[in-house]
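Record type: monomer structure entry
Structure origin: computed from sequence
Chain ID: A
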Amino acid sequence: CGMEAKQHSIKSLKSYPEAGGRSLAAAAGGDGGGGGYRVGGAEMEMEAKIQKAIDFKLEGHRCYKEKKFREAIGKYHRALLQLKGIHVVDGTTGSEVNLLNEAAAKLTEEQRRAVESTEIECYDSLTACLLQSELVNYERVKEYCLKVLGHQQDHFKAMYRAGIAFYHLGDYECALRYLRDAKCREPTGGHYDRFVIIHRSASQMVSLSCSRFYN
């Protein structure tokens, strides 16, 4: 389809067990000594925030599986709140840097992946929850999908859901663009039937708008 997106390997964070096992402190290589009270305290606070975010995310997943969508939304928001002061530096997305004191610069690559993948999973899961609502807030769905795509440009579900959101918001040209990109990623996936219907409808609306403009 003429689009070459970056392949981001976002791991499932199985290196961070729900109970026991290797902690984030171990991942950071910190043992609580040698760094001074101020820096060591900041690093411990940052570590605790990342771990809490992961825990809230997992609770959100559990609520989603139990179809407790409102509770799941709350858990995902709490996870993101834990990460509010930790923005991973990414040269490709221009993410801002706002890390806890000076400890952010000492994030290990493993911790950076933990922060980024937790954000992606939370925003992706939030859109899934919102789409289960009787009255879907498509503006919010669009916002969260674009956040996911800001991290991972080739994320199929975010492309597909962004296309649906733009369609329902009346921006048919953007809807077509995202739906076409999604089709390039997964041309015969489980969403294909619905994709064909929405894509056809969006194409008709764009054609109608163009004919009205020129007439």
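Annotation 1: The chain has two domains: 14-135, 152-215.
Annotation 2: Confidence is low (pLDDT under 50) at residues 1-23, 25-37, 89-101.
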